[in-house]
Amino acid sequence: MEKNIRPQTSEQQKHEERVVRVVSTDIEGKTSVYSGLTNIKGISWSISNAICNILKIDKRRKIGSLSPEEIKKISDVIKENKIPKFLINRRKDFETGEDSHLTGSDLELKKEFDIKRLKKIKSYKGLRHASNLPLRGQRTKAHFRKNRRKGSGIKKKKEKKE
Fold first, then answer.
1. What is the separation of C-alpha 112 from the centre of its chain, rounded to a whole number of angstroms?
2. pTM, whole model, 2 decimals?
3. Which of 43, 51, 62, 71 shows the smallest number of beta carbons within 10 Å?
4. Is residue 138 a part of any domain in this protein?
5. Are residue 23 and residue 81 in the same domain, yes or no?
6. According to DSSP H, which parts of 62-132 are helical?
């Protein structure tokens, strides 16, 4: 039972060894376009699927085999918000009121500023963030405990002196 495995050409090996930079994120060339795009912070599987469908790129194709023009098209789609509105991560922004999709360091900065704003106005979510407690109604009696040690509430027995 021999499998028909095609030997890779030197051209294919070069593409797989290549590291591709998309939206300031390095992605290994041997990963598929569909899973490789999810390495970018702010891009989920559904957004990656949408990008592949918009640009009509085969999802199983290796990201190392993409031409520089195709990589530029991918980054343009991400930056110019050509993604469907229901997938965007920043709808009706607090400051601008516009819809946008943030990736990478922009996403981290906006998230940090949002949390600081919530703390500053002392909203419920801000207070929960400040005290490192869950924000969305999870139970806290048994979970989210700090400094857990074995037998923390049990006193040691004193030895009797005779």
1. 15
2. 0.70
3. 71
4. no
5. yes
6. 68-79, 104-120, 124-130
